[in-house]
Each structure stands twice: as structure tokens, then as C-alpha cells.
Write the C-alpha cells for this entry.
Amino acid sequence: MRYGMGPEVLRDVSFSLEAGSLQLLTGPSGAGKTTLLRLLYLAEHQTRGLISLFGKDISTLSKAETPMLRRKIGVVFQDFRLIEHLTVYENVALPRKIAQEDERLYRAEVEELLEWVGLGQRQNAKPATLSGGEKQRVAIARAVVAKPDLLLADEPTGNVDPEIGERILRLFLELNRLGTCVMIATHDQNILDRVNARVFRLGEGRLTMLPPKPQHLAF
Amino acid sequence: MLTFGYRKLQLMPSESASGATLHIIIAVMNFLACLTLGAVLTLSDIASGWSRGLSASMTVQLAVTDQISAEDQTDAAMRVLQSWPGILRARALSREEAASLLEPWLGQGNVLQDLPVPQLIEVQIKSGEKVDTQALRAALGAVPGATLDDHKHWNEELSGFARSALGVGWAVLGLITLATLAVIVFATQAGLNVHRDIVEVVHMIGAKDVFIAREYERHFLWLGLRGGLIGLMLSLVTLMGAAWIWDRAAGPGSSAFTPHIMASPWHLLWLILVPLASAAIATLTARMTVLRVIGRMP
Ligand SMILES: Nc1ncnc2c1ncn2[C@@H]1O[C@H](COP(=O)(O)OP(=O)(O)O)[C@@H](O)[C@H]1O
Ligand SMILES: [Mg+2]
């Protein structure tokens, strides 16, 4: 994978994700973690190589199939990407709305999810009035609200203090326990030390895989 | 549109300055389109009315000649005309009628007494029928001094003029449409640029292109319709004002010649189609622009 005429960012990368599995993606800043996730959530096309998602080669996806595939993937963007003129509730409900579900079917679920991430009282707030940690949780709630099969989180604890970071992490592990395949890109040593998961390490365009360390206990 | 209860997810600002500017542009475009269409319709009505009048009649002119007396000349011509197939009626104009026709050129007075004025015969053709003018001309050749004027020359001149004026009218309408398209494309792209981050997120979350396009379609549908109605209203006021001024300038009695801009209800119907076309053009253009821009996103 390369951007425009730039150097190849990802070169020797080969892996497969099992349904319901948990993995961490690490590597120094600029190693290509975000790029790899962007490839997985179809924000970029690979310049060479093969990517298949849910058993389908993504280069053969039709215009009609792409949105359907995207709806199976929840993304926590590194910069949140909340919609400023919508409230917290509306931001979180957006994926369900886009899937053209009836609001009566998901209203309670969205409210419950907001309670769960500790934003029950801030439903009608606009993103501009939220703290970094609160925005992070809105972004996460939006990523999981449609019960995706694959959750991709880009530095989800990068902008928050350790306590909130820990809460967010617990949330991901809980989701994973409920059957979602989770991939978290992070260079937070705390997460790497404490989570019992496969670790993908990116460096110089290459991906190396480290097996889970059984001596570490997950939360 | 995305509605949460009564709230909407607006991808486009509805009350922005660019909204007002766009409304003005679209209204002006519609105003010009309505005026042009009004002119085109009126002109084609007038032209076809004239042409119908001209081809429904002919004139036979009997020049004063020594070979035959005026009465015999008229009788001979009338005999040919009255039995001719396709002719409804032939009527010799009285001297008074001839005098009134010539009045604008010769002025009032007893000029005709002193002048050898040709006798005119007005010939009306049965509606829907054609007269073999060549054969008729030959038959009238037997009457000394008789010539047939079938108004062909005038008719061709008039329809040539009408055709080119109508062509100009349609070309102007085409240009107005083109300019409107360009404005809508430009405004849609600007809207997409301003809200690029929102469009991208919604796109990444799995919104279909047509879903995003619908937001813009709705916005531009109302823009096209509102701008169109304002333009239509202004043009109606202008056209009626023009008709009124025309009527006054033409004076009483000449109303038969006045092109009644608002005379036909069909014209009004055509004009009402302009804002509808404007709304349709705006909607479709916005849709195609959005689909093209989003189609380029990964
Ligand atoms: N949109 C882009 N255009 C050009 N180069 C980019 C773009 N995004 C990232 N890169 C480059 O790709 C490399 C990997 O970036 P990134 O995937 O963001 O790394 P990480 O997330 O691991 O910090 C960097 O060298 C960066 O400069
Ligand atoms: Mg990154």
C-alpha cells in the first residue's frame, strides 16, 4: 500500500482475523496502523495485494455491496469524527438511522448503550460541549450501536486519561465476549501489557505476529 | 431526510447567505425563462394567425385598361372565381372600401374621383382546401388587366421572420437552462465541500450514495421550486404590464392587432411549467452531481 507516489507504507502484511477474536495492532508512530485500518474499513484501496472481508474479495465489491459491508464494520476513528450539529443521541443512533431502521426499534437500545458508556445524562448535548473522554465514548458507542461483526478502533485511549482508558478497554473486551471481532490499534504499553490477545506489530512495512501471552490475565 | 423526531440531519445549511444568493439567481433565471417563453408563444401565435389569414385569402387586382369596360372586366373575373374549386366566396370591393384602404397613403378627400384606381376582388378560400393558383392565374389571363396575388411572397417572408425569431427564443431558453445547470452543479459541489467531513463520515458508516444524494435533492427541489415561483410571478407582472402598456399605446379600436400576451390560457399553462421544470432540473442536477462526487470516494 502506498499513498500517491509516496513510499510503500505497508509491504509485507498477511493475516486473517477469526470471527469473535481479539487482536491488538501496535508499532511506532507512522508505522502504518491507521493505514491498515483504513484499508479494512474501505477508506482506501490497496495499491497491490489481496484483501477479503467476510469471505469476499473487496476489489470485486459492487457499488451496491459496499455500504452493506461497511454496516458490518464499526469504526472508532482516531479523531472521533462526530457530527457537530447533531446531539450525542443522534450521533450514536446514526448508523441505525442510515440502515433505515425504525426509531421505535432502537431508541431504547441507544439509550441503554449511552447509560452503559456513562453518557446517560448527556444525550442531548452537542459534541462541542463534551470533554475528550466523553467524545471518545460517543465515538465508541456509535461504532458498536449496530452490533458490527468487526470493530476497528484507532488509538481509542490516545486522548484520554488512564482511568477512562481503562473503562474504554473494558468496554471493548465486553463486546468481544459478546462475539464481535475486535482489532485495536494502539501504542499504549499499558494496554499491551494487560490484554491477553494476539499482537500484530507493524514496522518498516512488515507485520509480525506475536501470540497471546498466557501468563497475563485479561480484565 | 434523516429526521430525529422533528429534527433533521441537515447536510446543507438552509438559512445561509449562499441560500439567499442562490434563490435570487434561480428566480432571475426563471424570470428570464418565463419572459422568453412568453415572447416565443406570443410570437408563434401572431405569426400563425397572420399566416392563416394570409393563406385563407387571395386578392385579384383588375388594372384599368382600354380593352374592356370596368364592369365587364369585374363580371368576367367574378365568373371565373365563383365557379373555381376551393373558393368559398369572391367579393368585389366597393370604391369606398378601396378608398379606405388607400387612405393612409393618399389621405382623405376625393382623390379617387380623379385617379384610375384598380378594382380589387377579395377571394376567400374554403378552409382546409387548396386552390390551384397556377391554373387560376392562367384562367384569369383571359380577363384583360387581371392579376392574382396569393400572398405567397408575404407569407414566406413572414414565416421566415417568425422562424428565425423563434429560433433565437429557443436558443435563449437553452442558454438559460445551461446557465441554471451550471449554477446548480457549482452550488452542489460547494455544499459537498463545506460538509465534506459529514458526508465522508456518513459514507463510511455505510450510507448509500442515493441516501446522501436525497438530502441534496430535497434541498434543491425546494430551491428550484421557490426560485421558479418567484420568477414566474415577476414575469407575469411584467408580461401583464407590457400588455397593458401596449394596449394603451395602440389606442382603442386597434385591439384586433394587439398581440394579447396573456390571451391564451395555454400560454399560462406553459409558463406554469417553467418553475416545475426548474425544480426538476435542480433536483436531477444536484442528484447527479452528488452521485458523481461520492462515486469518486473510496
Ligand atoms: N493520506 C496520506 N497521504 C500520504 N501519506 C500518508 C497519508 N496517511 C498516512 N501517510 C503516511 O503513511 C505512513 C503511515 O501513517 P499511519 O498509517 O498514519 O501510521 P500510524 O497510524 O501507525 O501512526 C506515514 O509515513 C504517513 O506519513
Ligand atoms: Mg495512526
In short: The interface with chain A takes residues 2, 4-5, 7, 9-10, 197-198, 200-202, 204-209, 211, 295, 298 of chain B (CB under 8 Å). The longest helix of chain B spans residues 152-194.
